[in-house]
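User: Can you recover a sequence for this backbone? Please restate the input before giving your answer.

Assistant: Of course. Working from this structure:
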């Protein structure tokens, strides 16, 4: 019985210390590349809008501006240059 109690206390202490150090932000821990996010957003918009969205043009824009103008598929102003009328 004492062995089980000691083991349970040990698990609680370990869990407490593990949970105490989980407040790091993934962006800080791994770093983030605006160019990568920009191109991923272009791909997401292409999936959402299909033939109405010029994905290659969006990706070229990401490369040209080095990811400084990240498209947001829900913001018409940010994706307007990449939409076509078909």
């Amino acid at each position: 019985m004492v062995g089980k109690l000691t083991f349970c206390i040990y698990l609680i202490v370990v869990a407490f210390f593990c949970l105490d150090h989980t407040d790091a932000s993934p962006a800080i821990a791994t770093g983030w590349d605006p160019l990568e996010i920009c191109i991923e957003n272009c791909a997401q918009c292409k999936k959402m809008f299909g033939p109405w969205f010029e994905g290659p043009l969006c990706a070229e824009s990401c490369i040209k501006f080095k990811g400084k103008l990240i498209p947001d598929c829900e913001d018409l102003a940010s994706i307007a240059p990449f939409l076509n009328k078909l």
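That completes the design. The chain is about 65% helix and 0% strand.
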